[in-house]
Amino acid sequence: MINFEEELKKFYPSLEVEDAADAIRQQDLSDMAEVIVSMLKDESKRSEES
Amino acid sequence: MKCYNCDAELSEKDYCTACGADVSKYKKIIYMSHSFYNDGLEKANVRDLSGAVISLKQSLKFDKTNVEARNLLGLVYFETGDVVGALTEWVISKNFRAKKNLADDYIEAVQSNPARLDTINQSIKKYNLALHYCHQDSKDLAVIQLKKVVAQNPRLLQARLLLALLFLESEQYGKARRELKKVLQIDAGNTQAKTYLKYADQMQDVGEDGKNQSQGRNRKNDELRAAEGSVTYQSGNEIIIQPADLHEPRGASSLLNILIGLVIGVAVSYFLILPARIQSARNSMNEELKTISDNADTKTTRITELEQSVEALEQERDQLQSVIDDYTGAGGETQKNDALYQAAKDYLDNPEDTQAVGEALYLNIDKDYVDSFASDPYRQLYYKLMAIVGPGISENLFESGKSSMTGNDYAGAIEALEKAWYFSQSLPEPDTEILYELGNAYQLAGEADKARSTYQSIISSYPESTTAAKASDRIGEEGTTAAASANSEADGGGDLQNAAAENEGNAENEGEAENEDDVRETDDNDAETRDVTQAAQ
Question: How many CB atoms are closer than 10 A to CB B310?
Fold first, then answer.
């Protein structure tokens, strides 16, 4: 049995063309590669210091 | 693949050959990104767009600089109707690789059709409005809006899914199934669509088996129609209900129907349309005839007027022509004027040749015209010439006339004496002897009437002259002679006697002789007259 209200929550307003610029600016562009690279750089610094 | 530390090209080693940095974990991250990209590409190829989105997002989580994954993700978003999401990914992709990037072509393709982009934008706005209606429990309005959205932008899957959900809510499972199937045509792996479709199928199955009125209402209606002899089936968006035993006409029956239709059409045309057309044509013809008749009447009237005008003009022309002829024609004023001018010229050229001038005046100029119609200068010139040439000519002609009388040439005498009198009568003192002699000439020539009228003119015009008495005697003698002639003839001479008596009476009333020469001349003339009378008897 489908619950209309519950299903309705899965629907979100779609972005309009005018909102494209804001959407691009608000994009979260963090990725695993950046995290790994920063971790490796920290590790190498620590090893150099030690 | 490049080193994260020194940006040198990496080899198959786990360390950078340029800077010696440990790149094993970094390489694994990059490989994972590529692996997810490949998975996303496979799913996109089989139209599992939802699965492709998940894989490609994972790929980008591992390596945000994976341009190929980002471009493909943008494509998948565009295919599902999320244009803004697609543009976002392509712009970010361009940011990571400015040149030789497929994202340039994709962005260019979208921006080159601004009308289409605007339509998509409008459809997104309507979708958002429909979603708002749903939250406000205005499902009917939401359905109306969503129908417009899917018509404008058939690839907006979220709109179709929401519309299908609304159809499911209102138990319109057929319509819901239609929308869901269209979603699955675009995105075969859409879990939401599959869930709704399964639910719609379940609910329709429940209606076939169970007694659920709200679910099986359509089915019951179908059964009822089948019981009544009708069949229901769906053709596109329409539900067709037709009798079970309906037979489509084929072959001869259709041809027969066509023929019957043609006959009915011809009959309708003949009885309904044709009379009206004929009447209309007749009316127009009558109108034309009336117009033509009016024009003919007008022209006839005009012709009559013109004919009358022509007739009047012809009469006027004739009158004017006669006036012209009076002036220029034979005997006209112009000719009369020319005759007098010619006579005057002849006299001026040769004053001695009065005979020629006299001839010209006698032949060409009428004295009555001179006295009655001519202008004063004309008359004065005429009488001036006559005064110059008249005496001589009249005397000569008088002598000539008397000579002719003596020689019994009465015709010649008459001619000469008439001429002589023409010239004499214009003089201040005309010689009435010429006129008397003329009368005698008429008498001797047997023209008694002319003789009488000549004598009468002497008596009436010149009563004081000596010749008047002689003329009067002459008339009296002629009356007695006429009476005697009448008595000797078989016919009654009563009138002649009366005429003679009147002449005698008139003669008695005339004037007496003036002097002895005239009396002697009268006696001589009486003797001649008696001789003439006796000769006549």
Answer: 11
Residue B21 has, within 13 A of its CA and on its CB side, a CA count of 25
Compute the nearest-CA separation of B208 from chain A (Å).
17
Q: Rounded CA gap, B253 and B250, in Å?
A: 6
A2/B165 touch (CB, cutoff 8 Å), yes or no: yes
Of the candidates B138, B164, B137, B135, the one whose C-alpha atom is nearest the C-alpha of residue B149 is: B164
pLDDT at B528 over 60: no
Instruction: Say whether both B341 and B296 belong to one domain.
Output: no
Asked if A33 and B192 come within 8 Å (Cβ–Cβ), the reply is no
- B32 touching chain A per CB within 8 A: yes
Kindly determine whether residue B88 and residue A17, on different chains, have CB atoms separated by under 8 Å. no
* Domain interval for residue B231: 205-244
Task: Say what the ipTM of the complex is.
Answer: 0.85
What pairs with residue B500 in β-bridges?
A: none
Cα separation values, B48 from B60, B68, B77, B78, B482, Å: 18, 18, 12, 14, 166
Does one domain contain both B459 and B530?
A: no
Residues B223 and B288 reside in one and the same domain? no
CA B489 → CA B326, B480, B482, B493, distances in Å?
Answer: 50, 15, 11, 8
Structural domain contains residue B435: yes
> B2, B29, B191, B195: best mutation site toward chain A, by most A Cβ within 10 Å?
B29
CB contact under 8 A, A11 and B158: yes
pLDDT tens-digit profile of B289-318?
999 999 999 999 999 999 999 999 999 999
pTM of the model: 0.46
Measured between CB atoms, which of B63, B156, B158 is closest to A31? Answer: B63
Domain count, chain B: 5
Residue of B nearest to A22 (CA): B88
Pair (B427, B411) in one structural domain = yes
Asked whether residue B146 is domain-assigned, the answer is no
Contact assignment for B4 to A40 by CB distance below 8 Å: yes
Q: What is the per-residue pLDDT across B369-389, written as a single tens digit (0 to 9) for each?
A: 888 888 899 989 988 888 888
